[in-house]
């Protein structure tokens, strides 16, 4: 099965049409919106299109769309608050009724387009309607009219407490912002220094958006789990403002593998074996904890001061995926997309092993197995052709590579996930460990981070930024006005603060 031209054209089409309102059973649709304002962020991330696709949930005539509300908004059905980080809440696009995700199918009154929400939440005996007697429903709570209107997060000011809990006194004003370390589809990463401890941290700044709230919650959970693994970037704390989230992460000063590959051209075999071994152990850890990364690439593989791998950026991760289960979200970086994702099929942990094969190929050859042209001319057509070749053409592995290297690349880059190296239901990671390419590798020592790295990064200046792209580090560190305002106020810590950051 291949991507045909008509399917690709449909993906490029813009429309503002909303789905019709459907009564009775809830239904889910995707609608397209006008593209957002262009930004200088990385355009190679496929998931950037998700900013143009909004999922809407139709139930009993209402057209619900996910939205973040303040703590003052209450659900029209159960009257409980709809605010809070990770809380799933919906708002009807027509009558403006506010409900929880779990409650949206229980609204008994049909939507009256272009009317106030009170018409949809009035006592049920005042509205004539036909109901299925077998359907269990909940009447809207009349007390929930207070605070029904959404309060935009941009206009909300924290005054000191929420639900009786004092706000965290440690805020952005406790940090000095020193350099820009990088940018991506998520936002940007800043080098920050804690004023009390003088410790350096990487601060990932992500703007709040209705579409990525759940993704941010997943990323935070994965960062917490990654704290004690030697090859995963860990989380120190989180700070929330009404407009942004700030993830305060380990500062990995060795730079990413993209930067070092530019210096080397290609990596020696010993380097590839060492890096891919540590990456494999990190992938194994993630899979054992039901986490699918989906975006393993050179830019997300960092080196610490000793030369060990650190995997970062869990923005596209899928959490809670058990062995044998599959998901179907189309996301990733174009050059690293697995064939099953391009075909639109359901996929599981197999895509991470494809990503590992692509990373190893790039380290050995100096370019991805299916490179994309940088030219903006006919970019859509070029992208379509490359995606077609990824489905139809076998990987061209250079003959100068060793037999073992060619063998592991062929195994990891099998187009069918059932026969891909590392994807066997029972053996899985054992096949990776026992491959001849890793014959001289002590896996037990590597699991304890006791294998000496083949290359140690150079650290010279005070801020240790020699291994980052000057395109970013030379940028002025500027915070937008809304950030500057909240630097002088207490900010809400959303659930994770380690004492080692404070002492």
From TrEMBL:
GO MF, one example: ATP binding
This protein's record includes keyword Transferase: yes
E.C. no: 2.7.11.13
Annotated Protein kinase domain residues: 175-438
InterPro entries, sorted: AGC-kinase_C, C1-like_sf, Kinase-like_dom_sf, PKC_DAG/PE, Pkinase_C, Prot_kinase_dom, Protein_kinase_ATP_BS, Ser/Thr_kinase_AS
Keyword ATP-binding: yes
Boundaries of every Phorbol-ester/DAG-type domain copy: 61-111
Enzyme class: transferase
Domain (AGC-kinase C-terminal) ranges: 439-503
Transmembrane regions: none
Binding site for ATP: 208
Gene3D superfamilies xrefs: 3.30.60.20, Phosphorylase Kinase, domain 1, Transferase(Phosphotransferase) domain 1
GO CC annotation: cytoplasm
SMART domains: C1 (SM00109), S_TK_X (SM00133), S_TKc (SM00220)
Alphabetized UniProt keyword annotations: ATP-binding, Kinase, Metal-binding, Nucleotide-binding, Phosphoprotein, Serine/threonine-protein kinase, Transferase, Zinc, Zinc-finger
Family: Belongs to the protein kinase superfamily. AGC Ser/Thr protein kinase family. PKC subfamily.
PANTHER family, sorted: RIBOSOMAL PROTEIN S6 KINASE
Stated name of the protein: protein kinase C
The organism of origin for this protein: Cavia porcellus (Guinea pig)
Lineage, uppermost ranks: Eukaryota, Metazoa, Chordata, Craniata, Vertebrata
């Amino acid at each position: 099965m291949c991507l045909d031209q008509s399917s690709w054209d449909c993906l490029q089409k813009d429309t503002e049409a909303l789905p019709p309102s459907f009564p009775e059973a809830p239904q889910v649709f995707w609608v397209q919106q006008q593209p957002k304002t262009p930004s200088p962020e990385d355009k190679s991330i496929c998931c950037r299109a998700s900013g143009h696709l909004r999922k809407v949930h139709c139930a009993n005539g209402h057209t619900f769309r996910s939205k973040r509300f303040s703590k003052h908004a209450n659900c029209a059905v159960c009257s409980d608050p709809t605010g809070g980080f990770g809380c799933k809440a919906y708002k009807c696009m027509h009558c403006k009724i506010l409900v929880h995700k779990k409650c949206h199918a229980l609204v008994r009154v049909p939507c009256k387009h272009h009317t106030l929400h009170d018409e949809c939440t009035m006592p049920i005996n005042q509205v004539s309607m036909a109901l299925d007697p077998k359907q269990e429903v909940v009447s809207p709570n009349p007390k929930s009219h207070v605070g029904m209107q959404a309060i935009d997060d941009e206009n909300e000011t924290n005054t000191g407490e929420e639900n009786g809990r004092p706000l965290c006194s440690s805020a952005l004003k406790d940090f000095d912002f020193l350099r820009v370390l990088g940018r991506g589809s998520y936002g940007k990463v800043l080098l920050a220094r804690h004023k009390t401890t003088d410790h350096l941290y990487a601060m990932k700044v992500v703007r709040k958006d209705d579409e990525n709230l759940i993704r941010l919650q997943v990323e935070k959970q994965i960062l917490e789990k990654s704290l004690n693994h030697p090859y995963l970037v860990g989380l120190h704390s989180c700070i929330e403002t009404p407009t942004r989230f700030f993830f305060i992460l380990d500062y990995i000063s060795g730079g990413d593998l993209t930067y070092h590959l530019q210096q080397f051209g290609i990596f020696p075999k010993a380097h590839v074996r060492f890096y891919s071994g540590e990456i494999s152990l990190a992938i194994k850890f993630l899979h054992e904890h039901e986490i699918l990364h989906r975006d393993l690439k050179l830019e997300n593989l960092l080196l610490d001061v000793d030369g060990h791998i650190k995997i970062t950026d869990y923005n596209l991760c899928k959490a809670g995926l058990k062995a044998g289960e599959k998901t179907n979200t189309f996301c990733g970086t174009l050059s690293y997309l697995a064939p099953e994702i391009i075909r639109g099929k359901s996929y599981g942990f197999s895509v991470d092993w494809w990503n590992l094969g692509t990373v190893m190929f790039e380290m050995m050859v100096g370019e991805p197995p299916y490179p994309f042209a940088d030219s903006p001319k006919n970019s859509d057509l070029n992208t379509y052709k490359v995606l077609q070749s990824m489905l139809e053409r076998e990987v061209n592995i250079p003959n100068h590579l060793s037999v073992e290297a060619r063998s592991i690349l062929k195994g990891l880059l099998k187009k069918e996930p059932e026969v891909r190296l590392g994807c066997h239901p029972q053996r899985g990671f054992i096949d990776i460990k026992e491959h001849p390419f890793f014959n001289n590798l002590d896996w037990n020592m590597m699991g304890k981070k006791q294998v000496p790295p083949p290359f140690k990064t150079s650290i010279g200046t005070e801020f240790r930024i020699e291994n980052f792209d000057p395109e970013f580090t030379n940028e002025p560190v500027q915070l937008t006005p809304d950030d500057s305002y909240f630097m002088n106020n207490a900010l809400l810590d959303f659930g994770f603060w380690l004492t080692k950051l404070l002492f």
